[in-house]
TrEMBL record:
Record field: transmembrane: 42-63, 91-112, 124-143, 172-195, 207-225, 231-257
Biased composition annotated in UniProt, kind: Basic and acidic residues: 1-10
Protein name, UniProt field: DUF4386 family protein
Keywords of the record: Membrane, Transmembrane, Transmembrane helix
Keyword hit for Thylakoid: no
Region: Disordered, residue numbers: 1-36
Bias-annotated ranges (Low complexity): 18-27
Length: 280
C-alpha cells in the first residue's frame, strides 16, 4: 500500500475546523465543549445574577415601604388589622424575595467558580462561603414562609393574634441575628479568597471584610426587643441598614465588576499567571 498523498484542501479544511473551534469558544456568554455543547460564561452569569438581585431588592424595598410600620405586637387588634390590610403586599414581597434568593444561589455558585479557577488551592474556603450562603438562603426562605403564614392567617375572619405574634417573632430572629452570623461567615471567607487570589479587584475583598464586621456587630440585636420602630430591635431597621443591605450591595458591586471586566476583555493578573503556568 502506498501512503496517500496530501490533498490541496486538507490544510485549509484543518485550519477551518480549528478556526471554527476557536470561534466557538469566543462567542458571547458561552464556551465550546468537546461534545459541541456550550457551557455558560461564569463571569456573565455571575454579573447577571447580581443585577437581578439589585432590581429585585429595589422592588421589594418599594413594596415594603408602602406597607407602613407594623404596630407593637402587644396591640392585638391593631396587629390583626395591619396584617390583614397588607396581606397582599406581604405575599408580593415574599414572592420577590424568593426569586431574589434564587438569583443569590446563581451568584454564589459563579463567585465560587471565579475564585476556584484562579486558585484551586483555595477551593475549600470558597466552598465555605458557598455553603454558608446556601444556609443563609434556606434560613431566609423559612423566615419568608413564617411571614407568609402570618399574612394568610390575618385574612381569616377569626385570626388568632397570638399566632400572628409567634410567627412574627420567629421570622424576626431569622432575618436578624441568625442571618447576621451566616453573612459574617460568607463575607469573611469571600474577602479572604478575593485578596488571596486577586481574581477580583482588591477593594472588593476589603469591602467584604467591612461587611463581615458590620454583621458581627449586628448579632446582639436579638436582645433589642420586637418594636418595629426601634433601630436596634431584632430583625429591625438597624439590621437591614447595617448588615443585610451592605452584603447585598457588595454582591451587586462584584457583579458589576465581573460584567465590566468581561466587556473589556481584561483578566485579573492572577488568572493570567495561572493560565501561563498551565493551571487553567
Amino acid at each position: 500500500m502506498t501512503p496517500r498523498e496530501p490533498r490541496a484542501g486538507d490544510g485549509q479544511r484543518g485550519s477551518g475546523q480549528s478556526g471554527t473551534s476557536r470561534a466557538g469558544t469566543s462567542r458571547a456568554g458561552t464556551n465550546r465543549l468537546g461534545t459541541g455543547r456550550r457551557t455558560p460564561d461564569v463571569s456573565l452569569w455571575t454579573g447577571l445574577a447580581a443585577v437581578a438581585v439589585a432590581l429585585l431588592l429595589l422592588a421589594e424595598f418599594v413594596v415594603r415601604q408602602s406597607a407602613g410600620t407594623r404596630p407593637p405586637l402587644d396591640e392585638s387588634e391593631a396587629l390583626v388589622d395591619f396584617m390583614a390590610t397588607n396581606s397582599t403586599k406581604t405575599l408580593i414581597m415574599i414572592m420577590i424575595d424568593t426569586i431574589l434568593m434564587g438569583a443569590l444561589i446563581v451568584f454564589l455558585a459563579g463567585f465560587r467558580q471565579l475564585i476556584s479557577k484562579v486558585r484551586p488551592d483555595l477551593e475549600w474556603i470558597t466552598d465555605l462561603a458557598f455553603g454558608a450562603g446556601l444556609v443563609f438562603v434556606g434560613v431566609t426562605l423559612v423566615g419568608d414562609s413564617l411571614e407568609a403564614g402570618a399574612a394568610l392567617e390575618a385574612v381569616n375572619p377569626h385570626a388568632d393574634p397570638s399566632a400572628l405574634r409567634s410567627l412574627t417573632e420567629g421570622h424576626m430572629l431569622m432575618f436578624g441575628s441568625i442571618s447576621c452570623v451566616l453573612l459574617a461567615l460568607v463575607s469573611a471567607a469571600s474577602g479572604y479568597v478575593t485578596l488571596a487570589s486577586r481574581a477580583l479587584p482588591v477593594w472588593t475583598g476589603r469591602v467584604a471584610y467591612v461587611v463581615a464586621v458590620l454583621n458581627v456587630l449586628a448579632v446582639p440585636t436579638m436582645f433589642g426587643g420586637t418594636n418595629d420602630t426601634s433601630f436596634v430591635s431584632a430583625g429591625g431597621v438597624g439590621v437591614a441598614v447595617f448588615a443585610t443591605f451592605p452584603w447585598l450591595a457588595w454582591v451587586v458591586a462584584v457583579g458589576i465588576v465581573t460584567i465590566r471586566g468581561r466587556r473589556r476583555g481584561g483578566r485579573p493578573d492572577a488568572q493570567r499567571q495561572a493560565e501561563a503556568a498551565g493551571v487553567l
